[in-house]
Amino acid sequence: MFIENTKSAIQEIPFPMITICPSSQMRKSVWEKYSDTNSSYWKNLQQYRSLTCSSYVYASGLKGYAEHYLDINWFRQIMKDCAISCSEVFQSEVEWQNTTLSNFCQFVQPVLGIFGLCFAINMMPVYQILNDANYQGSKWTFDDGYSLFSDKDVLFSITPARTSGVSYYHRLRLKLHTTENEFSACPNNDFNEDFFLVIISNPGELHNMYKTRSYVASDTYQKIQITPFVKKMNSDLMWRSLKIRKCYLHNERKLSIFRLYTESNCNEECRINITISMCGCVHYNSAFLVTSGVKLCGPAKRSCVQKAIRNKKYLKY
């Protein structure tokens, strides 16, 4: 039924999504401006830092009350004020297939990760992944691959992009920048300096933060080489019943948040739903996936959120 490790032309395989998650999430100038001002912004700023630093250790240094629920709109605003921006990270030109790309942020989409604001490269447009009214179709799907009418030569004419070869010249080369002394480190950060978490994942899975990943410290060079594993389904199976096939195509199971069905997208939606059910809110890294009427879980809800995320009873494929 399935043909594993099939030989495929490199042009048929999408280049992976690369997510860059900087450790720089708290701008010193903002922290110092509002520190100990007894303002609502200062109180919210402390909640924000406690949440974004919770990947290292639960930040117990809140001078005030640890909130149970937070407003999504102010969280987004503080993140915009405090986190390092795309233009600061990608200050240098980027090389793709021996072509230099300027103004690279036009090809980057903001996403939320375990540290806070991250930047996704070669991710399908969000409106194609989520149930969005602006959806107008895609030139690539999980089951059918690339459309015959899609451009094979230009990288970013379609997303996800694909490379045309496997040599030294068919690579993506990034130079990431940190802004030394402009950001505050989280408590108990094992790194003595700014760093980046680089995640390699499926271009159609918005929130897959647990796949292949690597930490890149300042003043270092790192090469990541990928060997794709191809698993194709016999075309005859597409017309068989679900009972016989025992798997879903990308458009056969309706999800409420995600337009594209994958095991990862389904599990992420289950995590969001069970977190709302158990805690009455969502984890902060789901702030881009829900409406502004949904509450974010504050630092006081951390234990509840952890229990919800670990509750495998509700994960269904």
Sheet of most strands = 5 strands, antiparallel
Number of strands: 14
The overall pLDDT average reads: 82
Q: Show unreliable segments.
A: 56-61
Number of contiguous helices: 8
Radius of gyration, rounded?
A: 21 Å
User: What is the SS-derived class?
Assistant: alpha+beta
**How far apart are the termini?**
19 Å
Helix and strand pattern: EEHHEHHEEEEHEEEEEEHHEH
Estimate the global geometry from the Cα principal axes.
Answer: globular
- How much beta, percentage-wise? 15-25%
Supply database-style keywords:
alpha+beta, 14 strands
Describe the overall structure:
- The chain has 317 residues and is an alpha+beta fold.
- 21% of the residues lie in helices and 16% in strands.
- It has a five-stranded antiparallel sheet with strand order 6-7-2-11-12, with no helix packed on it.
- A hairpin with a 4-residue loop joins strand 6 and strand 7.
- Helix 7 runs antiparallel to helix 8.
- The chain is globular and about 65 Å long.
- The two termini are 19 Å apart.
- About 2% of the residues have low confidence.
Short précis:
The protein is an alpha+beta fold and 317 residues long.
Draw up the topology in text.
Elements: E1 2-4, E2 17-22, H1 28-34, H2 40-52, E3 69-70, H3 72-82, H4 86-89, E4 94-96, E5 99-101, E6 108-112, E7 117-121, H5 126-129, E8 140-141, E9 145-146, E10 172-173, E11 195-201, E12 212-217, E13 231-233, H6 242-245, H7 263-279, E14 296-297, H8 302-309
Antiparallel strand pairs: 1-13, 2-7, 2-11, 3-14, 4-5, 4-10, 6-7, 8-9, 11-12
Helix pairs in contact: 7-8
